[in-house]
Amino acid sequence: MTLSIIMPVLNEAAGIEAALAALAPLRARGAELIVVDGGSSDGTAARAMPLSDQVLNAPRGRAAQMNAGAAAARGDVLLFLHADTRLPPNADALVLAGLTGSRRAWGRFDVRFDEGGMLRMVAAMMNLRSRLTGIATGDQAMFVTRSAFDAVGGFPPIALMEDVTLSTRLKRVSRPLCLSARAVPSGRRWRQNGLVRMLLLMWLLRLAYFFGSDPARLAHAYGYTGTEAQGARPLPHSSTT
């Protein structure tokens, strides 16, 4: 199997070169790297071009951008990576061997944040919750076989919780492969907004989504502006467990 890494970006010029440089060893071993820009105004796309295999433009919104990357990808396995998350050095081998050996159709990594303190507890809670529920989030670098991704229709066109909805659909195909190797997301949003506030916000958003709230309204509460939700629409109620 071959691997395609898809990275949705928006105004990530300050860190995009470092993010892509970290993936150079995986590219050297045959992984395809696709950057999907949602209309950056800071030159992100130009900075990404020398360090990736494809740079695409897509309507702004993480789900739309990731679906566009998946449509252009050549790999048998798709891995969706946030620009501020770092993969383990041997992530490609872990994903491909893990899916082959387990006969699972999708999965994710455990996480640890790029700093310690209370964020260690947050990461431990995320990992435990994911193992108990079978739900993965974008910070955990979700990966999925192309056949399973296509079978469930890709990411739903909603402004928030697209990763939760995709996980729910993929659970009908197989249980997730939970890799204990750590992806390392940035703790910048947690630092900026406060740990307790972010914890409460995330749980409230999940609870509201479980009871059928419009993802566009939840995205606004999360801090996205209207443009991040461009083209998104609500979905019928679906369980997140």
What report would you give on this structure?
This protein is of the alpha/beta class and 241 residues long. It has a single domain, classed as Spore Coat Polysaccharide Biosynthesis Protein SpsA, Chain A (Alpha-Beta Complex), CATH 3.90.550.10. It is built from eleven helices and eight strands. The chain has an eight-stranded mixed beta sheet with strand order 3-2-1-4-7-6-8-5. Helix 3 links the parallel strand 2 and strand 3. Helix 10 packs antiparallel against helix 11. It is globular, with a radius of gyration of 17 Å.
Please sum up the structure shown.
The protein is α/β, with parallel strands linked by helices and 241 residues long. It has eleven helices and eight strands. It has helices at 16-21, 24-28, 44-48, 62-72, 91-102, 118-133, 146-151, 162-170, 188-193, 195-210, 215-222, and strands spanning 3-9, 32-37, 54-57, 77-80, 85-86, 106-111, 143-145, 177-185.
Shape: globular
| CATH level-four homologous superfamily name | Spore Coat Polysaccharide Biosynthesis Protein SpsA, Chain A
Number of strands: 8
Largest sheet: 8 strands, mixed
Spatial order of the strands forming the largest sheet: 3-2-1-4-7-6-8-5
Helix-strand category? alpha/beta
Using the 3D structure, state the CATH architecture: Alpha-Beta Complex
Work out the count of structural domains. 1
Topology as H/E string? EHHEHEHEEHEHEHHEHHH
Strand content: 15-25%
What's the average pLDDT?
A: 86
Name of the level-1 CATH class: Alpha Beta
Q: Fraction of residues in helices?
A: 40-55%
Radius of gyration: 17 Å
Task: Kindly report how far apart the N and C termini lie.
Answer: 30 Å
Q: In the CATH scheme, what's the topology name? A: Spore Coat Polysaccharide Biosynthesis Protein SpsA, Chain A
